[in-house]
Design goal:
Strand content: 25-35%
Radius of gyration: 17 Å
CATH architecture: 3-Layer(aba) Sandwich
CATH topology: Rossmann fold
Largest sheet: 5 strands, parallel
Number of helices: 7
Shape: globular
Distance between the termini: 25 Å
Strand order of the largest sheet: 6-7-8-3-9
Number of domains: 1
Number of strands: 9
CATH superfamily: P-loop containing nucleotide triphosphate hydrolases
Length: 206
């Protein structure tokens, strides 16, 4: 882990919906190679914070910076094209192969195609799953497909919202080992899973 390279900085972030305070004066940082988790009970705003970082909503006050660029309406695209995002609920009425953002590229790219095959095998998924409708998959299968997509994007930061919540114990542990044993991956996540949280470098209490 390279503690010298700051990727993401959140400073004094505050957000409220009507009379409900979602977060107040929240500050934290994510350095290259770190695995950081936001922890809190359901409904405390963890997903809202991730959405703000990705420009899907805006804070009332405070700043979000990624690679020394401060989030603003003008540079939302920079954030979204340099961060891989897996939302908590991923529901798409399409074939699984169309879930992959770079599907048009990997079909004509031997390296990406080989990597996809390798990841499907690792996550105990048959290649036949590519032709299935995403809506028909189990929750754990959807999460594994989402993680594979994030890996194929090869971006500097992965934002994962409850990424292993629907997985069976065995594949969950395999997934956690895979992600946390890779020092090149930088991950900001939300999770209630104790196994996931125990492997994080930092836990931010919300």
């Amino acid at each position: 882990m390279n503690n010298d390279e700051l990727l993401l900085s959140v400073e004094n972030l505050s957000k409220r919906f009507e009379d409900k305070i979602i977060t107040q004066q929240l500050s934290f940082s994510v350095f290259k190679g770190e695995k950081v988790a936001l922890k809190g009970t359901s409904g405390q705003g963890k997903s809202t914070i991730l959405n703000i970082i990705l420009g899907f909503g805006f804070q009332d006050s405070g700043t979000v910076s990624f690679k020394n660029r401060t989030l603003s309406p003008e540079n939302i695209n920079f954030f979204r094209t340099n961060i891989a995002w897996l939302p908590q609920s991923l529901s798409l009425d399409t074939k699984v192969e169309n879930v992959f953002t770079n599907v048009k590229n990997y079909k004509n790219n031997r390296v990406s195609l080989d990597k996809l095959d390798e990841l499907l095998l690792f996550f105990n998924l048959s290649k036949d799953i590519l032709k299935q409708n995403f809506q028909k998959l189990s929750g754990g299968e959807r999460q594994r497909i989402g993680i594979i997509n994030a890996m194929l994007l090869n971006r500097e930061l992965m934002i994962l919202d409850e990424p292993v919540s629907a997985m069976d114990a065995g594949i969950k542990t395999k997934t956690i080992d895979f992600l946390f044993n890779n020092p090149e991956l930088t991950i900001l996540s939300t999770s209630h899973d104790e196994e996931w949280l125990s492997r994080c470098h930092k836990i931010i209490e919300i």
